[in-house]
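Hi team,

Filling in the usual template for the complex we talked about on Friday. All components are listed, including any nucleic acid strands or ligand strings, so the model treats them as one assembly.

SUBMITTER: L.P.
PURPOSE: interface mapping
COMPONENTS: three
RESIDUES: 1282
SEQUENCES:
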Amino acid sequence: MEQERLKKNKIPGLNTGIEIRKTICAICEGSSSSCGINAYIKDGRVIKVEGMTEFPQNQGTLCAKGNASRQYIYNKDRIMSPLKRKGKRGSGQFEEISWEEAYETIAEKLLSIKAETGAESVVFGAGFTKWLRPFAQRLGISFGTPNFATESSTCFYATQIAAGLTYGQWGGPDIKNSNCLMMWSANVFGTGTAGAKKLIAAIRNGLKIIEVNPAVTHLTRYADIHLGLRPGTDGALALGLANVIISEELYDQSFISKWTVGFDEYKAYVADFTPEKTETITGVAAELIIKAARLFATGGPSSIKTSASPTVHHTNGVQNHRALIALSGLTGNFDAPGGNYVVPETWLHVGTGVELRQKQFIFPRDLTDLPPRIGQEAFPLWSQFVNEAQSMWLPRQIDSGQPYPIRALVAFGYNQRMWPGNDYLIRMFDKLDLFVNVELFMTDTAKLADIVLPACTSFERSELRLYPGNHVILTQPVIEPLGQSKSDIDIIFDLARRIAPDDRLLNQGYEACLDWILEPSGLTVEKLRQHPSGMTVKDAVMPGFRKYETDGFATPSGKMEFSSTALKEAGLDPLPTYREPVLSPISAPEPAENYPLVLTTGTRLPMYMHSRTFRNEWNRRLHPDPTVMMNPEDASKRDIGIGDEVILATHRSQVKIRAILTDTLKPGIANIYHGWPEIEVNHLIDYDYLDPISGFPGFKSLLCDIRKA
Amino acid sequence: MKKRQLMFSFNIQDCSGCMACVVACQDQNDIKADGTALRQVSRQEKGVYPTLIANLSLSCMHCGDAPCLLVCPTGAIFKHAESGAIDINRDICIGCHSCELACYFGAPKFADDGKMIKCDLCIVRIENGLKPACVHTCTTGALQLGYADDLVEKKVDGASRKFLNSFLDQHLTVQDR
Amino acid sequence: MKVTQKKNIAIIGNGGAAVHAVMAARSAGFTGQIDLISDSEGPAFNPMLAPYFLKGALTWDHCFPFGSNFYRTCDVTCRFNTTVDTLNIAEKSLQLSDKKKIHYDQCLIATGASAVVPPVPGLRDSKKVFTLRTTESTLQLQKAMQSARNVIVLGASLVGTKLAEILSKRKIKVTLLDIATQILPMGAHPKTAEKIESYFRQKGIEVLSGCGLDGIEEVGNRLVCHLPHRIFDNVDFVAVCTGVKPNLQFLEEGQVATRQALLVDNYQRTSANSLYAAGDVCQGLNRQTGESQWMGTWGNACYQGRTAGYNMTGKTTSLPGALPQYVSPFFDWVYAQVGDINRQGCDIRTDESGSPDADGGWQLLVFKQEKLIGVNLINAMRNIGVLKKEIDPLLS
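RESULT (copied from the run log):
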C-alpha cells in the first residue's frame, strides 16, 4: 500500500524502482539556458523531470518547456527510422530505409558532387541546439567545404561583428561586481529562465537596472529606469545617451585618450543627438535619457547585457549595436570589474577559464585554404568576423549558382521559418540534388528533404557542455534512443568514415575527439563520467581585467575604435551611425500610410522556442492560438476588441491571428511571435530585407497594419 | 506536538507568468493535456505602470478550515495531521461536485473517472524530503512552501521593515527642510 | 474561550448537524457530558448519499461518513432507539421514551426532516411506494429496484431528478412527474429546466411536468397509477420525492417559534432559552435576501451544527447565514444553482450564454438592477467562484 503510494507519487528509491539520472535540457540555448535536469527513470523510461538542484546554471529551476520534456521525447511524431522521399518534394511521402542505405546514398551523392563541382557545392548546416556544431563543422572542413551554414546567421553573430569592429572582443556583464546593469532588450523571464532568480536576488541586493525595451516587461517593475523606445531606434538612443555623457563630461577621459581612436569624430557626431532630438526619434522622454545616461556613467561600475538578436535584427543592426556597446568603453567599464568582462570563448560560445581546443578541432585546415563561403562576397565584414557561411544568402546562391553551384545540403535540424521570405528558400530546395535533414520530427522543413535521418533528444545522448562559472558536464544517455534514432554526433562520425576517411582524429571516434579537445584543461572523458551532475573546475584560471593594458585591442589600430578601420576600408560609415530602419514611419512615409504600425517579430513566449514545443500539448495549451499584441488605442481605432480575429498585413503578405490588447505596448507598435506552425510570419518580410553589414534580416522593425478579420 | 499548517507562499510581485509550475504539476501528476490543470496561472492586466501585469499562480490553498472538507458528504476529503494538507481518498469520492461548489479558488477538478482530483501539496514528496513539483521548478522563486507561522513572521518582518523605511524617509525629508 | 466544566449538553438527533455539534463542543474544550438521543442506532447516516449508494457509487458502510468510532472518540453518551416524549423548556429537561429523564444546560434539536408523502389516494398505504431519506427506506428501495422494470418518480425535486437518472441507468423505464410547470421547481430557471427536461428525454426518461398523480391501486403484483390524462398500469413501484418536513413531533404547539421549520438566529438559537437548533430541522438566514429560509443541504447542516456546538459551549461564533446553492451531476452534465434564480420584476434581466455541450458550458445569469442575484450553470463550473463572489453580499 505504502509502496503503491510512493510509486504513484514517483518517489525515487530502491523500493519503487525509480532512479534519478542526470542530464541537461536542449530545448533552448543561451547564456542562461541548457538547464540541468533530474530525469526520473523507471523501467527504462522517463516518468518525470525536474530541474537539477545542484546544477549551478539553473539551481533546480526549469521552465515550462523543459518541464514538458516527456511530451517531447515520447511524442508520437518522433521519427523512428531513416526515411527516403518517394513522392514529390514537400508531399510528405517517405519510405523507411536502413541506416546503411541512407549513409550509402548520402556518401555516394556527396562524393560524386565533390568530384564534379567541388566539395564547396555541399553545405553542412545546423539549427538548434548548438552542441553538435564543432563536430559538424569539422566534418564539413575535412570533407573540403567551407560552407557551414547555421541559424546563427540570424542569431547573435551580428553582435560579434559589432564587437569585433569596435573592441575586437566583447564580454558579458560582471554582475557580481556591478552596481548598474543596463539590460538592452534582454528577457530572462520568458527565455533563459535559469538567470531569473539570480537576477532578482542581485536586484534585491542593490543592483540598479536600466531597462531598454519597447514594451513594459516583467523586468520593468524592478527597473530604476525604463526606456521604452520605438523598435529599430536603438542606435539613436545609444547615441543620445553618449551625447549626455560627453556633454556633461562624465566619460572616462583617461581611457578615451589612451585607448581609443576616432573619439573626436564620434563626439562631433553625437553632438547632434541631443536629448530632445533623441526623444523625437526614439519616443523616449528626454529627461529619462538624461537620467539613464547619468546613472550609467556615474552610478557604476556599470555593465550592459544584451541578448542574441533583438538589437541586430534591423537593417541598421550592426551599427545600432556598435553604438550601444560603445557606451561601455566610453564610461571606462570595458573589461573592468563590474563592467563587461572579456572571457574568451572556450566551448560553444561560452567563455570560461577552462582551456579547450575548440578552434583547433573545428579547423584542421584554414578557411582561407578553401573556396569562399556562401555570402562572403555579399557580406565581407561578416566573413571577417564569423567563420561560418551567411545562411541568409543560401537561397540566393542556390538560385544564381554564383560563384559556384550549391547542390547539396546536409542539415542538422533546419527550420525554414528562420529565413525572411522563407517561401523563396523553399523554392530553392527544389534545385538541390540532395537535401538531408536530421530531425526528431517530420517538421515542415523535414518534409522538404530527400532523406530524413532520425535524431534523438538530449536524454538519449551524450553531450559536452561548459557553463559560466567553469562548470563542466559530459552527460550520458539516461534512456536508450527511441526506435532507430541516433545521437547527431553518431551520425556525424558515421558520415565521417565515409566522406572524410582521411581525417584521422575524427575517425578515432567521439570520445577520442573529446579527450583531444579537453586535453589542455586536464579533464578527460573518464574523469567527467565520474561526475554525472558535472563538476566545477576549481583551478580554472580566469583572465584578468583590463587585458588591453597589456595586450591592446584585437582591432587594426590596437585600440577601441569609435571609428572602425575595417568599416572605413569597406567604404562604409566608420562611426556607429544611426539610420532609420528601411521600413519605418520616418524613412518610408508613403508605405507607412497604408502600413502605419511598427511591427516587431520574434519576441519570446515562455512556452515556445522558435518552432519547438508546439507538439508538446502541455505547452500548446498555455497559448494555443497565434496572436499579435497591440495597444488598446490602436485597436479601438480599428474597432478591434479583445481576442478578435484580425488580419495583420505588410506590403508582402498577411496572416490571420487573434488580437491581444495590452498597455505594455505603446500606441503605434505591434508585436508578434514568429514560430507558429500554422501561419507564415516570415512571409511578411522580404528575403532581402537585410542589414548590409551582417546580412541579418530586419525582423524587428517593419511596417504593418492590422484590421478586423 | 503543535499542529502546524504548511501552505504555499506566493509573491505576486515576482511571478513572471512563465507557467513552469503549471507544466511541472501536469508532469508530476500525469495530467492529460486536455484534462484540467491542477495549478493554473492567469495573467491580469489591471495594474499601474510599471507593474501593469499581475500573474497569479493558483492551486488548492490547503485552507486551515477547508469548506470542501466540511461539505464532502462521504468524508473523502481529509486534512493531513502533520502538514495540514487537504487531500482526498478517491476510493470513497462519489463525484457529487459539492467540493467544487464550496471552493472559492476553483481547486477541485474532475478526472475522467468522474471523481475529484486536485493539488495535494505533493504531500508524499514532502514526506520524503522533496518539494512540491511547482515550488521546485519556480523560475523566479515567487512560489514557495512554508509553515504558516514562519511565513506570517517573515511577512510581518518584511512589512514592518517597509513601514520603518517609509517612516525614516519621511523623517529625513522633514529634517532636510 | 470559556471552558465549561461539569455542565452537560443534550443533542436530539444523529445526523450531520448533531455530529458536527459534538465535534465543535469537544474542540472548544467542553469536557462535560454530551447525551445524544436518536430514534435510530448509530453511526450517523447521510441521506444525500442514498442516491449514490443506489447507483453503486459507494458501498453501504461508506454512507456513514463519521464511522462508528466517533461516539467513543468524542465521549458521547449515546441513547439510541430512543425518542423524546416531552421537552420541558423551563425545567431544561427531556422526558425520554425509555422512561428516563435527563436535565441539560444546553440542548440542541438536530432531528432533521422526514420525507413527506402527499395525500394522494393509495399512496400512503401501499408497500410499493418508497421515499428516500432513511437507512430503511434506502435499503427497501434498493431491493425494489432489483426486479423493477417500470417506475414512476413523483416529484422532480433535486432528489427525484437524481433518482430518475439512477433508475434509468439501470435500464428501468422511468416516468418523472411533477405538479409544477417544470422540473426542479425550486432553484432552476424555466429555461434551465427546459434544457434538463429535454436532456432527460434524450436519455429515455419520460418527463411530465404540470402533472401530478391522481391515485394508485395495487393490482396483483403491480401498481396501476392514475394520472390526469393517462393510466400507467404495470408499474413496479412509485418513488416519492415531493419534499421533506422537519421532525418536530415531540414539540408542543407554540412551544418554540416555527415557520416552515424552527426559526434560529445566526448563533443557532431558537426562541426558547438554552435551546438551539441546527440542520434540516431549522431555517436560518438566507444572507442574500436577508430573510429566514429553509435551506436543507448537508453542508449547511454541518456548518450550523458546528456553530451550535461552539455557542453551546461558550465559544461565541456567528454563522452569517447561508447562500442558497446546489450542485448535482445528471448523466454527463453538471448542474448548479446559486442564489435567487426565479425572482420576477421589471428590474430583472436574464442573460443566457453558451451551450451545455460546448467548451465553457451554459450559463444563465439573473440580474436585479444590474446586480447579479442568481445563476444556473450546466457544465460551467469553471466560473463558480467568481459568480458566487458576485452574488454573495458578504463578499461582493
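MY TAKE: Residues 148-176 of chain B form the longest helix (29 residues). Residues 173-177 of chain B have pLDDT under 50 and may be disordered.

Thanks, L.
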